Amino acid sequence: MPELPDVSVYVDAIATRVVGHRLQRVTIANPFLLRSFEPSPQALSGRVVRDVRRLGKRITIGVEGELWLVLHLMIAGRLHWYPAGNARRRRAALATLDFDNGSLTLTEAGTKRRASLHVVAGDVALASHDPGGLEISAATSATFAARITAANHTLKRALTDPRILSGIGNAYSDEILHRARLSPLALTQLLAPDELERLFEATCAVLAEWTARLRPRRRASSRKASPPFAKRWPCTGVSARPARFAAPGCSAFAMRRTRPTTARAARPGVGCFRIGRSRGC
Fold first, then answer.
1. Which site from 3, 65, 107, 147 is most exposed, i.e. has the minimal number of CB atoms within 10 Å?
2. pLDDT at site 89
3. How far is CA 228 from CA 52, 105, 142, in A?
């Protein structure tokens, strides 16, 4: 699922192309995509785009009249940009937004349709789609620690809960825990102050680092953001390089159907545990 760095790159790419341009037509090809009925998607037609924002893991596009289109890509949703006059690929699009300078299409791999699209009016209605998680870019060490320790959860759950922290999911939470050298099973209210500080620094560093890495890869002709779980991950996905370190409380992670990193060799006799779709070795 696209998370904060990926969605941020999407928002930047979309804003560069559509802000100040007129949205001419909205076409919904799959009725399961649209999750709202009023205002109608047709109410967006003919209006100029004023803003593009990230709302957690959602992409929001604001047009004249305080109308907003809220798009959640979920796991397999991807956006593609086609400049005006360019032929589109022969791939079924769930939705198409036609602008005066090109078209933005949404596709979703597989047969399950999890992506969603809402059309809302006004900032109050837009705010109702925000789970309320803390934005890391605006957080301090104190506010981060207060939010993390407000309830006693495992670190894995606390990092991925959108009501606690905004925009972090399975992939980046694994990378953060690996960087902070903390166990995903550690309870938040039992963390020492230095561990909370280390977790905060790792969270800020990982999200900033990967946002900066993904932005240069967005070419002018690029139609979608870099996919998650690529070989570049130190602790998620397939990697030919050994893990940088193996912490006492945790080691590298590997998604199912991938090879674990060599961190397991640093802890002989320790088995694997499973958390959601991930497996720690």
1. 65
2. 65
3. 22, 20, 30
pLDDT at 91: 66
Residues 6+ away with beta carbon under 8 Å from 111? none
Amino acid at 61: I
Which pTM does this prediction carry? 0.78
Q: What is the model's pLDDT at position 72?
A: 94
Considering the domain architecture, whether residues 215 and 117 belong to the same structural domain is answered as no
Would you give the DSSP letter of residue 222? Answer: -
Domain assignment of residue 158, given as a range:
136-280
* Whether the Cβ atoms of residue 23 and residue 45 lie closer than 8 Å to each other: yes
C-alpha distances (whole Å) from 139 to each of 127, 150, 247 are: 19, 15, 26
- Whole-angstrom Cα distance, residue 271 to residue 281? 6
Same domain (yes/no): 161, 78: no
What residue type is assigned to position 16 of the chain? T
Is the domain of 225 the same as that of 100? Answer: no
Measured distance CA(46)–CA(42) in Å, rounded: 9
